[in-house]
Description:
Blueprint: H1 5-22, E1 24-32, E2 35-42, H2 49-67, H3 72-95, H4 97-102, E3 108-113, H5 115-147
Helix pairs in contact: 1-2, 1-5, 2-3, 3-5
Amino acid sequence: xxxxxxxxxxxxxALFSAGxxxxxxLTVKYVxxxxxxxxxxxxxxxxxxxxxxxAIFTVALPAIAILLFKNRKQQKWMAVFCIVLxxxxxxxxxxxxxxxxxxxxxxxxxxxxxxxxFLPVFAIIFLVLAIKGINKDxxxxxxxxxxx
Length: 148
């Protein structure tokens, strides 16, 4: 299965998307006992369930696409759909970033993106590289069909 370069890119995209569950996506600062505290918020602590559902799909789709190595057309469309989902994840994350800090006790006075919030960007890059690899394979198969 991991014979082609696009399988490696799809695996890396799935791993980077899974990293959003392992690393903090948001860093918040708040005052507790007259002392400033800095902590991270992970994705599963985020109150938006749509964001979590999209993140699950962005992990599952590239992993499933690796298994579709015989059907390059479907593999490519799954990668494109995963890019769209990653963009939707980033957009929804930007829009709902403040909602994660509103429910935080004690009240947060500053928030910033953390490492896990940037991982979908890298996943998009790997998905684009996977699509290029799939297109390269399609060209190779078409050129071999002409030789027969």
